[in-house]
Amino acid sequence: MTVKEKNTPQAGSIFQPTIGKIVAAKMLTAKEKYFRVVLEGGKPLGQKPGQFVEISVFGAGEAPISICSSPTQEDSFEMCVRNVGSVTNLMHQMEAGATLGMRGPYGNGFDMEAMKGHDVLFVAGGLGLAPARGVIKYVLDKRRDYGDVTILYGARNPSELLFKEDLSEWEARPDCAFHITVDRPDDAWKGNKGVITTLFRHVKVDPSKTYAVIIGPPVMYKYAILEALSMGIPESRILCSLERRMKCGVGKCGHCQIGNVYVCKEGPVFSYAQIKRLREGI
Ligand SMILES: Cc1cc2nc3c(=O)[nH]c(=O)nc-3n(C[C@H](O)[C@H](O)[C@H](O)COP(=O)(O)OP(=O)(O)OC[C@H]3O[C@@H](n4cnc5c(N)ncnc54)[C@H](O)[C@@H]3O)c2cc1C
Ligand code: FES
What we know:
Layout: H1 3-6, E1 18-27, E2 32-39, E3 52-57, E4 61-66, E5 77-82, H2 86-92, E6 99-106, H3 112-115, E7 119-125, H4 129-141, E8 149-155, H5 164-172, E9 177-182, E10 192-193, E11 210-215, H6 218-230, E12 238-241, E13 257-258, E14 261-262, H7 263-266, E15 269-271, H8 272-278
Parallel strand pairs: 7-8, 7-11, 8-9, 9-10, 11-12
Antiparallel strand pairs: 1-2, 1-6, 2-5, 3-4, 3-6, 12-15, 13-14
This protein binds flavin-adenine dinucleotide and FE2/S2 (inorganic) cluster.
The site of flavin-adenine dinucleotide has 23 residues, from β4, β5 and α2.
């Protein structure tokens, strides 16, 4: 392998970020901004659904960000970034035409082969829709490979709903069931009101052939896991993506460590059976 080949995004050079050009950017909510990025030379990112990238804003630092597009979209990749601090704030100032650095893709991602032939129940809360979207889009693009698809999505209020165009598309699709809720509705809201677990009463699954994919803040996935367990879905088929503080993304710095597990390398996707062993106390 030549040095040049080693530095392709698929090889994941940890010392030299690949340059990416933002080709589309727009605010999705007051706090979250969407980006579509094309890599130098038009290379595909080659990610698995559920993986993340380390994005660098030169001179400021790096931040791990989930890839929210499907690998079936090869010409570019997408991200949804919440403005919380130094790197994400500078990203929010970027528009189409700007360049950034990218390392990765990193993390294990979801085992889409193992999920083939099974029904999939997606449960996404808040910004958890960003990583979930890449997996949902993959499954919908490969629709014949999977059984029944159910999508549950919850946000705190209607103004925080992400990817509204996708939500309308999923709602209209005859080949998937889509349910949405907000904790605090406004006057115009006609849908379900309450936390995401209130949506489970609309859902019937065959636990013998269902995977649950649960992504959201800890307070949400804790209760969503309990719902999935009460449906009879086995612990090994309840999959969560854990968000820990990360720096290097490649198992070198220890920032993401739980016991002897590096979440950036062995995760961020874990089954509930594995999470229990991590003794994170969720
Ligand atoms: C695997 C993974 C995937 C992620 N995917 C996304 C995504 O798709 N979109 C997105 O907007 N964010 C995502 N995050 C969170 C994102 O990495 C942090 O918000 C970002 O690193 C903050 O960097 P900053 O320099 O802007 O903030 P800083 O200036 O470093 O910190 C600002 C505030 O954010 C807190 N913070 C810093 N890092 C993290 C972190 N890793 N998790 C939680 N809080 C943090 C700090 O305590 C502080 O309160 C992901 C994190 C991980 C580990
Ligand atoms: S982020 Fe450095 S070891 Fe995981």
